[in-house]
Amino acid sequence: MNPRIVFLQLPRLDPDISMPGENVMLAAIEAEAERRIGGFDSPTRCFVGTRLPDLFPERVRGLEAWGSSNRRAAIFSGADLFARREAITGWMKEAVRREPDILWQFVFEPQDQEPLDLLFAAIAAVDGLLASVFH
Prior knowledge:
Helix content: 25-40%
Shape: globular
């Protein structure tokens, strides 16, 4: 019997509460979580950075690597990740389909700035899987 797994995703924030400043945005996210689910204790206070202390020890790079532990960080790095978004999101979908019972961290390590549409594409790819894999 599989343990019950619950995924929680907050929808995109209302633009009216998106104000300049990291602390204001973080406070808005925490307020929304408090309102919807009674709050949460986020171990990762920074969502974009050069250091990720919570990154899983096993790190796979490239679209051919799979790994072996049940906690894996898949790192997509290089220039123009947006141009490769279909290959990257396809790999993400395949990873979750192949191994739905492990924890995946999908990490983007761009060489230069990338459009936010890259993240929206990744979110959409995983969103569609959650319902089909766990129901």
